Amino acid sequence: MARPDSPHDKLFGEAFSSVEAIRGLLNSTLPVALRAKLDLSSLTPVPGTFIDDALSGSRSDLLFSVKFAGRPALVYILIEHKSWIDRWVALQLLKYVLRIWERELAKDPKPQGLPPVIPLVVYHGESAWSAPQCLWDLLDPAVREEPALGRLTPSFDFLVDDLTEATDEALFSRAMGLFAGIAAVFLRDSRTPSRVVPMVRRLGAMLAELWTAPDGQRAVAILLRYIWLVADVSHDEVVAAVECNLPEAKELIMTIAERLRQEGLERGRQEGRQEGLRTGILGGRLRTVRRQLELRFGALDEVTVRRLESSDEAALERFAERVLTARTLDEALST
Fold this sequence. Notes:
alpha/beta
């Protein structure tokens, strides 16, 4: 069962799918020496997804190709989005890199060599990124202690763009385009209640500018829907903050609120129809995994409980295995 997009995935995928947004992102995150050797003017999105349902932890994966300056060879840039600290993301990225290479080998004629892949994680959790940024750091210490093992073991680093530590000025200076710049701030601030209304007021003029851009009303709708879904604040205050700079959006705001209400009703009906089946097939496994997690890490918050309840049988099985060795709750529930 594929997991539906989270609100974070939806906003990231919409705002960062353009070449302009990714070029600005890469100009600010790639090491200077590497950036100088890549022809970012040749940046091209690679259509489709290289992640199948069995591997998908999100639907926010993006893949772009770029020419290596002075050479005909392409370099792939793999961009993955994370809204929580995932200790095992290096392993996830390794799987994705292998999928990219497998797709290359399926071409006719086959390439003479495998293309480089640059992995970049865009992160906006509740605290600064603290997980390993190298596959090597996930391995048993024996690999580091014995050179003969190290030479036989794959390893790679990946880049992390930590939005939690970026200021408004730094994000907008990236020249990612107005939609992506505003989206980056929304991703960073919307889960901190005290930041939400000041953020909307602070960006009010930019939202008004975005409104008049091509496809801008759709972009504003995506941003406001995101706040509605993730921000734990008074909707009346948000509405007032938006209308202060963008009174034209009042009808849109009401439409979004009504659609979310209808979606909530429909979701409730679907969950009601599935509850009998779910209780019989997954109920026992769900209760067992929840109990294991509580014994290991203490009481679970509402967000974690909802995540468990929406998980399929395969995911619950993974969580049950990881709880035995995981050092943190995030590690036990990583994708």
